[in-house]
């Protein structure tokens, strides 16, 4: 790698006053033809391009991004990574992703700041605790780490949490996945972009796909704001805008795009060194390396592409966090944002071929796509390279909505969607 | 915060009084037992999910509890109007034609 990062390169560039660093990825003009086009330059799309080049030897690849890299949901999430899903298919897929996360910084030679600080899912009712026991047992059977904790064990790990009976919904226990954690969202996009670019992938920003060129049931290329670009295989990884792309191909998807909001506080001294999520009161919180509390909400109920939601959702989430952490009540919030999440009927992704030959979709990740970034790219690259799904994503095909083989993670997963 | 007018109560109220109830005017296959699985799956699960104007249902849960139709833009969140389901359907069909 021409630009390999190491202690050596840091010292060498330091001696040159850090003025000789090269751009991490190239920004070429689009060519007329590619073997594969990936529509969408977020984490999932860039990971797909990276694994296509690295594992399948397909290097004549373009990633087309209408804005800037990682500027969509990759930059608009709460960076939580876990794999404690209930059903076998989902647990295997997310666990595949988690295993890739564990070696990702070395693999990419780029520090994605993956921190396995654990993810805790607290329960507030007897039924919550039954569900937690069931899910933890299912996780253990699937080789996913899981521990069930008592309120006192929670308090020992997170001293600021209120486990008293004074609260409206007292905490009765939790599940904990020690291998879960958080990562730096931008670094994931940048690391994959750099890795893919190094292997010969063209990363083209400010290039919006405006149409799909389809002849005789086969994909031939795409119309873009920078001219037509031809390719026999096109992979769409456009999250909230997937339905818009599908319509260009005359397809309908079982997706609804909703705003999902999150917000961060002012920086504080370290006070919480794990991720705490609550399904019942509905909020999740972790602390970033900068000391900000990163707090997430539930989706806004209505359809929305506007990357913003309604204030009462923030109010509800803040109430949930203060219920668990009364000492956060006077923390000031710094920023708030909304992303567009593509929610599928069973809260599981669609990683699938379509009835148009050579056109593939990777979408429907809904509220939990960030955690799957490397895993999603890895299996989608396999699907495109072989024109056949990877064993891990075979169950996540589009036709499950006709056959009825849904993987119902709505509510079964550790947090409500 | 959306401000929605209930066509029954004839009052503009904040979104918190209402519940979103999904895409409006999804036609159920006329003879369900005769359609194939793909058509039925399309009816049950697939949605228009447009980036633009969207006909949708809202329920006035904290008021009259009636369900009605709203035409709303999914990017600007602007609301073009709200109607009873029957009145809205006539307009919707006119637009589709």
UniProtKB/TrEMBL annotation, chain B:
GO terms for biological process: tetrahydrofolate metabolic process. Its EC number is 1.5.3.1. One of its GO terms (molecular function) is sarcosine oxidase activity. InterPro entries: SoxD, SoxD_sf. Pfam families: SoxD. Keywords: Oxidoreductase. It is an enzyme of class 1 (oxidoreductase). This is Sarcosine oxidase delta subunit.
């Amino acid at each position: 790698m021409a630009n390999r990062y190491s202690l050596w390169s840091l010292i060498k560039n330091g001696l040159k006053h850090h003025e000789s660093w090269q751009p991490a990825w190239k920004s070429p003009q689009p060519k007329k033809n590619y073997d594969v086009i990936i529509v969408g330059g977020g984490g999932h799309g860039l990971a797909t391009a990276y694994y296509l080049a690295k594992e399948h030897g397909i290097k004549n690849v373009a990633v087309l991004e209408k804005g800037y890299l990682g500027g969509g949901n990759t930059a608009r999430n709460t960076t939580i990574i876990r794999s404690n899903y209930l059903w076998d298919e989902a647990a295997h897929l997310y666990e595949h992703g988690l295993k890739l996360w564990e070696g990702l910084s070395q693999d990419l030679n780029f520090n994605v700041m993956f921190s396995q600080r654990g993810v805790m899912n607290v329960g507030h009712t007897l039924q919550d605790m039954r569900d937690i026991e069931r899910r933890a047992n299912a996780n253990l059977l699937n080789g996913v780490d899981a521990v069930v904790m008592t309120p006192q064990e929670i308090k020992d790990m997170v001293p600021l949490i209120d486990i008293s009976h004074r609260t409206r919904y007292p905490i009765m226990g939790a599940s904990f996945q020690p291998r879960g954690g958080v990562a730096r969202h931008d670094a994931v996009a940048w690391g994959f972009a750099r890795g893919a670019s190094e292997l010969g992938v063209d990363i083209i920003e400010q290039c919006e796909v405006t149409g799909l060129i389809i002849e005789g049931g086969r994909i031939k290329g795409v119309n873009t704001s920078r001219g037509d670009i031809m390719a026999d295989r096109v992979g769409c990884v456009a999250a909230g805008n997937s339905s818009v792309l599908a319509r260009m191909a005359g397809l309908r998807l079982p997706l609804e795009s909703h705003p999902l909001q999150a917000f961060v506080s002012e920086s504080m001294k370290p006070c919480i060194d794990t991720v705490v999520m609550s399904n019942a009161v509905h909020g999740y919180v972790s602390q970033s390396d900068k000391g900000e509390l990163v707090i997430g909400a539930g989706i806004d109920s209505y359809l929305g592409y506007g990357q913003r939601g309604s204030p009462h959702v923030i109010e509800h989430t803040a109430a949930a966090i203060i219920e668990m952490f009364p000492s956060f009540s006077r923390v000031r919030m710094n920023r708030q944002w909304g992303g567009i999440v593509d929610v599928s009927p069973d809260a599981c992704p669609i990683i699938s071929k379509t009835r148009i030959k050579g056109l593939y979709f990777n979408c429907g990740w809904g509220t939990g796509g960030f955690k799957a970034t490397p895993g999603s790219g890895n299996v989608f690259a396999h699907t495109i390279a072989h024109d056949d799904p990877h064993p891990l994503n075979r169950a996540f095909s589009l036709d499950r909505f006709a056959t009825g083989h849904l993987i119902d993670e709505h509510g079964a997963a550790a947090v409500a969607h | 915060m959306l401000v929605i007018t209930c066509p029954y109560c004839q009052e503009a109220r904040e979104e918190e009084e209402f519940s979103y109830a999904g895409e409006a005017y999804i036609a159920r296959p006329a003879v369900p037992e005769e359609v194939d699985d793909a058509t039925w799956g399309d009816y049950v699960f697939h949605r228009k999910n447009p980036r633009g104007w969207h006909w949708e249902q809202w329920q006035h849960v904290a008021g009259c509890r009636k369900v009605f139709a709203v035409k709303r833009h999914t990017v600007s969140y602007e609301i073009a109007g709200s109607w009873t389901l029957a009145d809205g359907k006539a307009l919707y069909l006119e637009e589709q034609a």
